[in-house]
């Protein structure tokens, strides 16, 4: 398909409303025709596909590459050793590089393309996506974002071509989330003009370091120094050699394989102990601070806290990548579960054909809100990527904070959601969802699971969201500007709380599907949680100090962060509804948006505790959710078809894109039966 | 430890209240001392262990066996091929048999011992538990329960010694849950006095049959006949040979390996096609129906429906076994997560030591209600085993229905719960919970996942619970007797509904922790759901017929079944509190019971929709849940220590039973570091 045709379709599909207007017009009630409950019109799948994806050419190119290399499309679950799996991942990477892709350039300059690649590869092999993340986002990203032009010039091409595989060696055995607690030392020896990098005790051994066990030749090592030139200046990052060109370990470097893991065995995670490893002074990645020949320290940034934040801030790219990959996995799992459920028949009325399992409300209630959430996450993720690109371009400070919050929150929300969702999708496919061959491994949580932990433990990341919201909330009363994503919080916190009692009891479907009601409800929740959290923290802090006060309120903190992310998701979803000019696609998207929001409003107890939603309204919402599940079921297959994952990538005989082939025939053949 | 000492301790610990009285006295308020919120006393772990487990000798014996065979304690995640894993499982089984255990005798006569063995082995290797289930409960069980003395005599010893490995070949490619839809044919050839067993089309190929791919020499094949002697008599079971003594396939039998699965690769699942396989007439398992030399059919049971129910009813044992194994897995995962969280430190107040992650409310809210649920499931499972044994002894019809319902419901509830719980436990252990070596594979859902599907899909099983409750509910109005487990439903459905408005608003802690309130609340919910479901079904059935009416109400049906199981769990948990005479143990058990019940009452929206729990009461419950999480946290480690899983079985360096060893040292050594 030509890029031109895509561009034309894009123009047809996307209304030219600027983002700001789109989200405010999302608050306008929809015409009645979109509200009434009835069959959703069958939309044109290609139109929807093109509305969703504005990089179809990249997708076609990448997936075509793997069509030409079927030997690379093997599943981890098929009894590979970790060494075999790692070699497979390296082969995949080499094929991508040989085809002319330049992942390091993407990461450094063409961000949207990089993140799209991460999402696309997640369905090839999650280990491959992570390998890409380790090499380009973590290792390469640390060099180009924490280093200066000198480092970039020296290493860029070798990193890009994988001639210089490297690591980002942050996590230690005893310190993961608490980065400020890292203990690896870097001390400057002014006599030799070298840093001495040292692991002071076993707890400080670097652990889970991707690329370390087999491939890594160098590592970026973030280390607070115990003594010496950087004393009291906080965490800094150094480039430390691990292996020479022949692959032999560098003097003073001890590396062991972290061994088999529950999943992602295509990644060579290793544990590293440094025993007084000497590296040149220039190996300090010195964008935020430098040390001269005499050992004098200087930094353009005034405080150690700001420097620490700026250093860690450069890790946002990794979280954006994980969010994209996780959405990719979710799309894959849903594609299989929806298609299988639509064709698998079991039980039926007496003397009548059996019924498709997707026609059972139990299956619908599992899969339809998940499909709605997947779409919402997809649009929210697009927004995140867009903001990230803008931030990289403008370096605007408010935007930096916004992207930091949104990437932390969406990474946490998406990866937790996807992990749970995959399990449910597997269960929805019964026994056939448990087969690894031919790969239904998209239905296996083993690999996606750890996404909840790495690049920031989800519980910790969610706290960062709340912390930033609180900070901005307090600042806003002092007149500072607010980022677009959370500007609603100020308005709402000052707005009429508690709710209007009339609205509390309103049960009309046109009200319940009015975007104004839905957005207001989710925003009300975040604002209310923020408002009450601020008050509780103030109260407790006076008595027990900030650390304990925060932890006393921890569940409240987490609820606020999730609520905020869901309100962002809804707004982006509704903006997409508005941006979609094809009426049929739009109807389905609107139904998904409503289902997503109503599902959250119904299940979140916060609304009940506040009497924001009266019991009879809750019951009306539940009836509407059931009805919407039924409606969406009618277009569920086209909705996953629009993800347009080619069969040779999905590799699931129970989730084939065509309905003209008996779905079981490939399955039988793969097991060895002639048919 | 001697059996005698155990018996003495048992007497000390268990109050001699008969089961019936125990559950009614569970409704009495506890003395105030047990209600007040404060630190729970540190109890004696050995006392608790002995209170929990009345087969300590079996446990010691089985686990000692594996201590002597460390070569068998390898984890599936460590890069084994499926063939290697299957051989490992066979070796384990042989060791068990060589030690003098007779699993077939246990299953046939010493039921409690059999189920206990299933639970114990679940922590050795889940594939081993399933292998045991396939050979003894499914294959052996079908022979002894569906066959007659003749079959038992002929096969019992060979099955027991694994000289005759066999299968229970029920599931077909296109029919799993809908057993009545099976299509494999068995037709009697009166001329040769043989059954001709045939697979009419590819959809009827037997699929996922455990023991089939490598080991099976025979299979029990439940088949409805398309024509011939059994015409219109429904599903019957036949013994069909698969392989001769040399392992060669029997004429007309085609078997293929189902290949790699997401987990449980130690089980040789196979797919079987029968092409007119001839078996002697005597191979019909004829306890419920027989066919004579002339082809005349006779059955002691009057209707095909009853015969079908009786045949499937004999599968309850499998569900009891899976429930036990699933509780075992949950205990293992919790043991690791709680111990690790208690010692892992991360972050802390300024200039103070870091804090154990278990001290964070976020971690407590994940793990403490789970610990409470684990105890509740454990006691409920014990009750199920007890009832099963009684049913086998008395063959009482009401008890048969009770055990059928309870085993279906508990299997579904436990396996779903455990699957979700393992994932949360893994996340609670961060990166170190993701290592497969040394095995933290208890934190991996891959194997436990499929428990939700096999031996009855959970969604289907839950419907059976509701169906039986409805039947008995209707019968009860005609004066039929009710089983003990659900007798409350009748009383409550006739009792004062809706709730007393005073109780709805009562927020006092002594009220909220009063067993009478807790039991009443959970029973109210089930009774109300049953009552309203019956009314809805009546209404819809008139219009759209029973099948559609049922499916229209499906989510209501599932909610009822889960609610019923939770009310059973609470009553058994409170009965255990009453039966425990050690005051310290009892205090902890009571706190767990309260936490379990309050957690369910708070999170289930049903209570809010009915206004049974007013918002201010809900908030008081939430505060109490938070406080109870804090209390239970104080005894969380002893509570998992009381499960007494030996370190060599748990094989988790981050979950060691002793606190005297640095938990990381074994971990470091395993990775290859000298320390």
Automatic annotation (TrEMBL), chains A, B:
<feature type="active site" description="Proton acceptor">
    <location>
        <position position="455"/>
    </location>
</feature>
<dbReference type="InterPro" id="IPR036250">
    <property type="entry name" value="AcylCo_DH-like_C"/>
</dbReference>
<dbReference type="GO" id="GO:0055088">
    <property type="term" value="P:lipid homeostasis"/>
</dbReference>
<dbReference type="GO" id="GO:0003997">
    <property type="term" value="F:acyl-CoA oxidase activity"/>
</dbReference>
<protein>
    <recommendedName>
        <fullName>Acyl-coenzyme A oxidase</fullName>
    </recommendedName>
</protein>
<feature type="binding site">
    <location>
        <position position="171"/>
    </location>
    <ligand>
        <name>FAD</name>
    </ligand>
</feature>
<comment type="similarity">
    <text>Belongs to the acyl-CoA oxidase family.</text>
</comment>
<keyword id="KW-0560">Oxidoreductase</keyword>
<dbReference type="InterPro" id="IPR055060">
    <property type="entry name" value="ACOX_C_alpha1"/>
</dbReference>
<keyword id="KW-0274">FAD</keyword>
<dbReference type="GO" id="GO:0033540">
    <property type="term" value="P:fatty acid beta-oxidation using acyl-CoA oxidase"/>
</dbReference>
<dbReference type="InterPro" id="IPR012258">
    <property type="entry name" value="Acyl-CoA_oxidase"/>
</dbReference>
<dbReference type="Pfam" id="PF01756">
    <property type="entry name" value="ACOX"/>
</dbReference>
<dbReference type="GO" id="GO:0005777">
    <property type="term" value="C:peroxisome"/>
</dbReference>
<feature type="domain" description="Acyl-CoA oxidase/dehydrogenase middle">
    <location>
        <begin position="167"/>
        <end position="277"/>
    </location>
</feature>
<dbReference type="InterPro" id="IPR002655">
    <property type="entry name" value="Acyl-CoA_oxidase_C"/>
</dbReference>
<dbReference type="InterPro" id="IPR006091">
    <property type="entry name" value="Acyl-CoA_Oxase/DH_mid-dom"/>
</dbReference>
<feature type="binding site">
    <location>
        <position position="210"/>
    </location>
    <ligand>
        <name>FAD</name>
    </ligand>
</feature>
<dbReference type="GO" id="GO:0005504">
    <property type="term" value="F:fatty acid binding"/>
</dbReference>
<keyword id="KW-0285">Flavoprotein</keyword>
<keyword id="KW-0576">Peroxisome</keyword>
<feature type="domain" description="Acyl-CoA oxidase C-alpha1">
    <location>
        <begin position="313"/>
        <end position="470"/>
    </location>
</feature>
<dbReference type="Pfam" id="PF02770">
    <property type="entry name" value="Acyl-CoA_dh_M"/>
</dbReference>
<keyword id="KW-0276">Fatty acid metabolism</keyword>
<dbReference type="GO" id="GO:0071949">
    <property type="term" value="F:FAD binding"/>
</dbReference>
<dbReference type="Pfam" id="PF22924">
    <property type="entry name" value="ACOX_C_alpha1"/>
</dbReference>
<feature type="domain" description="Acyl-CoA oxidase C-terminal">
    <location>
        <begin position="514"/>
        <end position="656"/>
    </location>
</feature>
<keyword id="KW-0443">Lipid metabolism</keyword>
<dbReference type="InterPro" id="IPR009100">
    <property type="entry name" value="AcylCoA_DH/oxidase_NM_dom_sf"/>
</dbReference>
<dbReference type="InterPro" id="IPR046373">
    <property type="entry name" value="Acyl-CoA_Oxase/DH_mid-dom_sf"/>
</dbReference>
């Amino acid at each position: 398909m030509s890029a031109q045709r895509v561009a034309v379709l894009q123009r047809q599909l996307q209304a030219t409303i600027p983002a700001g207007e789109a989200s405010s017009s999302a608050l306008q009630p929809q015409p009645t025709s979109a509200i009434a409950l009835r069959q959703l019109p069958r939309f044109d799948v290609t139109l929807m596909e093109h509305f969703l994806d504005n990089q179809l050419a990249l997708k076609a190119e990448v997936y075509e590459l793997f069509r030409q290399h079927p030997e690379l499309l093997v599943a981890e679950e098929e009894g590979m050793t970790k060494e075999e799996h790692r070699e497979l991942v390296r082969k995949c990477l080499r094929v991508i590089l040989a085809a002319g892709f330049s992942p390091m350039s993407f990461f450094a300059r063409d961000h949207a393309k990089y993140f799209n690649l991460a999402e696309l590869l997640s369905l090839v092999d999650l280990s491959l996506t992570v390998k890409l993340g380790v090499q380009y986002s973590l290792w390469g990203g640390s060099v180009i974002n924490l280093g200066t032009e000198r480092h970039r010039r020296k290493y860029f091409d070798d990193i890009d071509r994988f001639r210089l595989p490297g690591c980002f060696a942050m996590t230690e055995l005893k310190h993961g989330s608490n980065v400020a607690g890292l203990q690896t030392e870097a001390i400057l020896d002014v006599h030799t003009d070298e840093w001495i990098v040292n692991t002071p005790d076993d707890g400080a051994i670097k652990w889970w370091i991707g690329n370390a066990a087999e491939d890594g030749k160098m590592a970026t090592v973030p280390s607070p120094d115990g003594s010496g030139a950087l004393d009291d200046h906080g965490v800094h990052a150094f480039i430390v050699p691990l292996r020479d060109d022949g692959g032999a370990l560098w003097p003073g470097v001890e590396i062991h394989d972290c061994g088999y893991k529950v999943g992602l065995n295509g990644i060579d995670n290793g544990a590293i102990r440094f025993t007084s490893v000497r590296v040149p002074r220039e190996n300090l990645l010195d964008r935020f601070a430098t040390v001269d020949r005499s050992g004098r320290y200087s930094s353009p940034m005034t405080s150690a806290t700001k420097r620490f934040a700026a250093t860690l801030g450069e890790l946002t790219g990794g979280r954006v990548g994980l969010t994209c990959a996780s959405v990719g996995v979710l799309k894959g799992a849903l594609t299989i579960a929806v298609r299988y459920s639509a064709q698998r028949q079991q039980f039926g009325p007496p003397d009548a054909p059996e019924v498709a399992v997707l026609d059972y409300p139990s299956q619908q209630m599992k899969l339809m809100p998940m499909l709605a959430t997947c779409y919402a996450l997809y649009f929210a993720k697009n927004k995140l990527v867009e903001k990230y690109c803008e931030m990289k371009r403008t370096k605007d400070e408010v935007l930096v904070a916004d992207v930091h919050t949104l990437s932390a929150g969406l990474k946490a929300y998406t990866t937790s959601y996807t992990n749970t969702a995959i399990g449910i999708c597997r269960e929805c496919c019964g026994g056939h969802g448990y087969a690894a061959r031919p790969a239904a491994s998209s239905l296996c949580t083993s690999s996606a699971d750890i996404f909840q932990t790495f690049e920031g433990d989800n519980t910790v990341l969610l706290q960062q969201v709340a912390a930033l919201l609180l900070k901005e909330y307090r600042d806003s009363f002092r007149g500072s500007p607010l980022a677009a994503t959370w500007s609603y919080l100020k308005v709402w916190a000052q707005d009429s709380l508690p709710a209007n009692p009339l609205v509390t009891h309103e049960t009309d479907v046109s009200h319940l599907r009015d975007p104004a009601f839905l957005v207001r409800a989710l925003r009300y929740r975040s604002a209310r949680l923020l408002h009450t959290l601020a008050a509780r923290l103030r109260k407790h802090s006076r008595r027990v100090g900030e650390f304990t006060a925060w932890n006393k309120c921890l569940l409240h903190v987490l609820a606020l962060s999730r609520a905020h992310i869901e309100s962002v998701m809804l707004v982006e979803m509704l903006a997409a509804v508005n941006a979609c000019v094809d009426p049929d696609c739009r109807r389905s998207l609107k139904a998904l948006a409503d289902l997503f929001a109503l599902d959250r409003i119904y299940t979140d107890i916060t609304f009940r505790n506040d009497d924001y939603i009266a019991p009879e309204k809750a019951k009306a919402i539940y009836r509407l959710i059931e009805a919407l599940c039924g409606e969406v079921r009618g277009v569920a297959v086209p909705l996953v078809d629009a993800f347009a994952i080619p069969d040779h990538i999905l590799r699931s005989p129970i989730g084939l894109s065509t309905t003209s082939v008996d779905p079981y025939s490939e399955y039988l053949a793969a097991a060895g039966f002639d048919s």
